[in-house]
Design goal:
This is Short-chain dehydrogenase. One of its GO terms (molecular function) is oxidoreductase activity. Keywords: Oxidoreductase. With about 250 residues, the protein is an alpha/beta fold. The chain has one domain: NAD(P)-binding Rossmann-like Domain (Rossmann fold). Helices cover about 40% and strands about 15% of the residues. It contains six helices and nine strands. The chain has helices at about 15-25, 40-55, 65-80, 105-130, 155-175, 215-225, and strands at about 5-10, 30-35, 60, 85-90, 135-140, 180-190, 190, 210, 235. Strands 3-2-1-4-5-6-9 form a seven-stranded parallel sheet, with helices on both faces. Strand 4 (about 85-90), helix 4 (about 105-130) and strand 5 form a beta-alpha-beta unit. Helix 1 runs parallel beside helix 2 (about 40-55). The chain is globular and about 45 Å long.
Length: about 250
């Protein structure tokens, strides 16, 4: 399935992997909708896309940790973008360190953004996706959500949130089999944040190097452009000399 002209909503599009995905999606002729909670970072992504493609993507405020914000964003998309083809759940809040060092508020923000907010946005946009002849629901989970992977610096709250997100994706895959919505996911290991505007994006990496956002973005686009009869349900992406399994 080609990528040209497909409309893609991306959460967490203001920084890191979400921003990189939005930029490269636009380079491929897709129509990105940028969702995020920080106006300044979203503006920066918008300016990069406009400078590279001449097209200015729409920015939609969406704080996944606050359900009212999620509802407002979803209602806007449903009303204005009934031709949405793809939802990529990329946004979540991360925290490392000891569990007892986290505040209750931080724990809630991690869980709310990664689990509750993601599920709420997905639920609200499912009718839009199901109305399309072919649609994709893609979630960026994390190796932190896999039962056999070590924490490697992530907090217990983040690991728990990603495990819940992984369970949600698996359950939704089963529920939506036979519909027009294809459910897929990636489970990246540790990623170095690199934007397509940086020289490091094009640098060749050796076996000892970390994954970069480019590795994950290319994997996501590979999954999304599969023909409609093919579903790559989940893909674990880790560097050859892994940190997570040793």
């Amino acid at each position: 399935m080609g990528l040209q002209g497909r409309k893609i909503a991306i959460t967490g599009a203001g920084r890191g992997l979400g921003a990189a995905l939005a930029i490269i999606a636009a380079d491929h002729g897709m129509v990105p909708l940028l969702l995020g909670r920080t106006p300044g970072t979203l503006t920066a992504t918008t300016q990069i896309i406009e400078g590279r493609t001449g097209r200015r993507p729409e920015v939609i405020a969406c704080d996944l940790a606050h359900l009212a914000s999620v509802a407002e964003a979803a209602d806007h998309i449903a009303a204005r973008h009934g031709n949405l083809d793809i939802l990529v759940n990329s946004g979540s809040q991360w925290a490392g360190g000891a569990f007892e060092a986290l505040t209750d508020e931080k724990i809630a923000a991690i869980i709310d953004s990664t689990v509750t907010g993601t599920m709420a946005l997905t639920r609200r946009l499912l009718p839009v996706l199901r109305a399309r002849p072919h649609a994709d629901l893609h979630t960026v989970v994390s190796m932190s959500g896999l039962p056999y992977a070590r924490m490697r610096g992530s907090s217990a709250a983040f690991v728990a949130a990603k495990a819940a997100q992984s369970g949600f994706v698996q359950a939704l895959t089963e529920e939506l089999i036979g519909t027009s919505v294809r459910v897929t996911s990636v489970y990246p290991g540790l990623i170095e944040d690199v934007l397509p505007t940086e020289a490091a994006w094009d640098e060749e990496r050796g076996a000892n190097d970390m994954l970069s956002d480019r590795n994950v973005v290319e994997a996501i686009l590979y999954i999304l452009k599969q023909p409609s009869n093919v579903a790559i349900r989940s893909l674990v992406i880790e560097r050859a000399r892994t940190e997570f399994l040793g």
